[in-house]
Amino acid sequence: MSQIVEARITNYRIGIRTQMSKEILIQFSADSVAQLGALIGKKVVWKNGKNQLVGKIVGLHGKNGMLKAKFKKGVPGQAIGQTVELVNNI
To answer: Which CATH class name applies to 5-87?
Structure first.
């Protein structure tokens, strides 16, 4: 049985002049950065009704509990503020 943990999408990853809609920043509630580092490489799923987008956690973003996740397709703007699920096996 796979463990499911939820996190909140906070924003896209942005640059000075661009916004990367395929990469998002997600906020987990964890006690330490080491716990978040263990999540790198795991898959996350954003569900919207019958549709779902699957992404992969690719790295840390700062030291305040933020992680970067990358998707193959762009994540829509309505996903900001919603939750994603961390799943081990899909």
So the answer is: mainly beta
